[in-house]
Design brief:
Elements lengths: L11 H14 L15 H7 L5 H7 L23 H4 L12 H4 L23 E3 L2 E5 L2 E5 L25 H13 L5 E5 L8 H12 L6 E5 L2 H4 L6 H10 L4 E7 L8 H12 L2 E8 L8 H13 L3 E6 L14 H14 L7 E4 L8 E2 L3
Parallel strand pairs: 3-4, 4-5, 5-6, 6-7, 7-8, 8-9
Antiparallel strand pairs: 1-2, 2-3, 9-10
Helix pairs in contact: 7-9, 11-12
Bound molecules: pyridoxal-5'-phosphate and iron/sulfur cluster.
Pyridoxal-5'-phosphate binds next to strand 2 and strand 3.
Length: about 375
């Protein structure tokens, strides 16, 4: 054969060099971010959040007289919805999956057999005030008692936040515990929502955590990038970026439906990735909201498109006031099996439930 073999021009030694040249022409990995919000925008956004039902219904063009069932907010867990989240809801739709997460039904106040105030055993796991140590390698600090939104299915809606530490001495006990806790290499910041703290307080907390050499990972469990994306502002990103210089920063966001991931949230997530955080999502399986395979698949696709890995799909915790959201575990398992047929393995969340006293979350799907 006279034709020249392709391999004649193959020069393996040059490969790495060429590769490097090619890579140098690839644009910076992430697209330029939309202008980030001003530092104090999020606090202003909280001032204008919906705290009463009537204005929210008016904004959504819903007539209270047309409600499909009786509404009534539990005075201990009033309605709270930032405008950024309400803006993602469909107008005139009582069954909107985002509205259903925040709409207080009169049914919430009826006691339901098997639904209690501390279904997941938080109180016995509280080793010092504000610190839950359930699992060997990680401990959870409840740094804030506030959230930007009140999710009606919240597993901590009955938690006695009033008893959380307030003064410095109380928090010192938690830091002392963490300094000597055998085998703990990760601190989870939760609450409430940890990003509801202002940057000054977050900086102190990050400094305290940074002084513990055994702690390798700092994890935030937060719904703010979704419901109050203006919280992801330059000051916070700077704090995270500097903490990420010598620790892993993991951010577990909380979205239950693809429609929650709006344009501002998408920018906030890009900014968080840019600051060096690993992004995961946890969702709760909610009847009438996401208990459908295509809805869950859309959520996973929307998360992956934004660089967020679906982590947990939680079976609802049996907390008083949440029974109307419950779906059976059998149904949950069917949904996971359907998801496996639709999605790559990495986009199928782990379906788990929390059993009080167990050494980790309990997997429900085979
Ligand atoms: C859920 C939870 C964690 C985290 O569990 P992972 O399986 O690591 O995500 C840690 N501490 C407490 C108290 C929890 O409830
Ligand atoms: S954001 Fe989380 S902790 Fe806050 S109300 Fe919703 S579910 Fe509860």
């Amino acid at each position: 054969m006279g034709s020249r073999c392709e391999s004649d021009s193959y020069k393996p030694r040059n490969w790495a060099q060429n590769y490097r040249k090619t890579m140098a022409t690839v644009p910076a990995a992430r697209p330029p971010l939309a202008a980030l919000p001003e530092a104090n925008t999020w606090q202003k956004d909280m001032q204008t959040a919906f705290r009463r039902l009537d204005p929210l219904l008016r904004y959504l063009e819903l007539d209270p007289a047309g409600a499909p069932e009786a509404l009534a907010a539990d005075p201990d867990f009033p309605i709270l919805v930032p405008l950024a989240f309400a803006a993602l809801m469909g107008k005139g739709d009582w069954h909107d999956p985002l509205l259903a997460q925040v709409l207080p039904l009169a049914r919430e106040t009826l006691p339901t057999a098997g639904f209690t105030s501390d279904a997941v055993g938080d109180l016995p796991a509280q080793v010092v005030p504000g610190l839950l140590h359930k699992y060997a390698s990680r401990a959870l600090l409840m740094v804030s008692h506030q959230c930007a939104v009140h999710c009606r299915y919240c597993f901590r809606r009955e938690f006695p936040y009033g008893d959380l530490p307030r003064g410095k001495e109380d928090w010192d006990r938690a830091w002392e515990y963490l300094a000597t806790a055998e085998g703990v290499d990760e601190i989870l910041f939760s609450g409430g929502d940890p990003l509801f703290l202002d940057n000054r307080r977050l900086e102190k907390i990050l400094a305290s955590a940074g002084a513990l050499p055994a702690i390798r990972t700092l994890r935030f469990h937060t719904r703010l990038p979704v419901v109050l994306p203006s919280r992801i502002e330059p000051g916070l990103l700077e704090l995270l970026r500097s903490a990420a210089a010598d620790r892993s920063i993991v951010m577990v966001i909380h979205a239950n439906h693809a429609r929650e991931l709006g344009a501002e949230c998408t920018d906030a997530l890009a900014a968080l990735r840019n600051a060096g955080a690993l992004l995961l999502n946890q969702a709760v399986l909610l009847k009438g909201i996401n208990d459908d395979a295509e809805t869950l698949a859309d959520l996973s696709r929307a998360l992956i498109a934004r660089g967020v890995l679906p982590y947990y799909l939680h079976q609802l915790d049996k907390v008083q006031g949440t029974a109307h959201f419950e779906t059976t575990e059998a149904r949950g398992n069917e949904l996971i099996a359907e998801l496996r047929g639709k999605l790559p393995g990495y986009a199928v969340p782990r379906y788990v439930r929390e059993i009080a006293g167990a050494p980790h979350k309990t997997p429900l799907s085979a």
